[in-house]
Amino acid sequence: MGFVSSLLWAFWYILPAYVANASPVLVGGGRPIDGGRHWRDGRRVFGDGKTWRGFIGGVSAGTLVGVIQYFITPGFYGTLKTALMLAFLLSFGALLGDLVGSFFKRRANLPRGAPAIGLDQLGFLISALALAYPVKTLDSGQIIFLLVVSPFIHWGANYFAYRMGWKSVPW
Ligand code: CTP
Ligand code: MG
Ligand code: K
Prior knowledge:
Elements: H1 3-22, H2 24-27, H3 52-72, H4 74-77, H5 80-107, H6 119-132, H7 140-163
The structure holds cytidine-5'-triphosphate (CTP), magnesium ion and potassium ion.
Magnesium ion binds next to loops.
């Protein structure tokens, strides 16, 4: 595989995780996952920015993208079942990593929406890669590439969402 095509495949592989991470800003809202409860430090467990609708909607959107990807490049996945499993684990991993990130942000006394550089841009990605690892993984060069470019994509996507009026802060 050529260098450029290996990087493009890395994007193709991780796409469900990106979609899962980005879609809650549009589909989220309603009941927060922590149900409004507080941790023993007196602060919210996750906060109002982590909702069931965002979580389930994000996992669904990412998984659906994976199914569409299978029909575009079946050879990359082998079987529909593999594509489905991979997309689900990438999407679930992304939202789980995002949730864990918010847990640590609240423990650090950061209010909902406050930026946490590193955690915000890479937490979802590392968690997605880890959960999907047993089904299909990338080589180390591709993983390093995603770790380097994802923060820029994350910032770009958030800035776009801010300019569209979908969220109140550009990060
Ligand atoms: N969102 C959601 N459910 C999730 C994740 C995100 O509803 N599980 C929605 C919320 O409206 C959230 C927005 O997507 O405000 C942007 O997500 P994110 O930046 O991850 O949340 P923050 O508001 O920044 O909250 P936190 O400080 O906890 O990261
Ligand atoms: Mg945020
Ligand atoms: K986040």
